[in-house]
Amino acid sequence: MDLDALLLRYFDTDDLGAIGVEAMARGCEQLGIDFGIEQEPSRKFALWVLMDALGIAPLPAEAFEKQPQLRVAADDWLRQTDRLTREP
Fold first, then answer.
1. What percent of the chain is predicted at pLDDT more than 90?
2. How far apart are CA 8 and CA 65, in angstroms?
């Protein structure tokens, strides 16, 4: 999935700094709905990664309760992003 395409789909822009609080809330709500109904694993994971970047992702154990491979991938994602954001 293309990040710019996801941002355009959910927020009508590829610049999140350019939208207001209400547009952000609407986009996040729709993103959460789509995540909940998505069946294709790679698309579901991509939506979860975007949700994580926005600070609205459920924990991997909750998000991927019935998909252990995705849960492991999400845990790995969180470990790596935490490692990258720590100061040296």
1. 92
2. 29
- Write the DSSP symbol of residue 13: S
17 close to 8: Cβ distance less than 8 angstroms: no
**One-letter amino acid identity for 72?**
V
pTM of the model as a whole: 0.91
Q: Which two tokens stand for residue 61?
A: 């154990």
Helix (H) or strand (E) holding 61: helix 60-63
Contacts of 47 (CB under 8 A, 6+ apart): 1, 6, 31, 34, 35, 38
Rg of the chain over CA atoms, in angstroms?
Answer: 13
Helix ranges restricted to H, 12-40: 21-37
Q: Is 38 left (phi over 0), alpha (psi -120 to 50) or beta?
A: beta
